[in-house]
Amino acid sequence: FDPRAPYRSLETALSEDDLLRDEALALFRDLRELRNKVRHTDTYAVTPHEAREYVHLAQLLSQYLCGASRA
Which of 20, 31, 18 is nearest to 65 (CA)? Predict the structure, then answer.
């Protein structure tokens, strides 16, 4: 676990332990990358389209995780 990159560490663990399908890992990765772009770039401004896309991706991942927990 790398405390400087906790979300990347989580993604790696989920992948290595086969806890998520590839589609869910791709959603997680997309969310992580957009979050990092906003968090680590002082001049980056999120567009309305990107904000909607982030919410949409988060909803898809949430639906996947809720479905996976019932299986």
Answer: 20
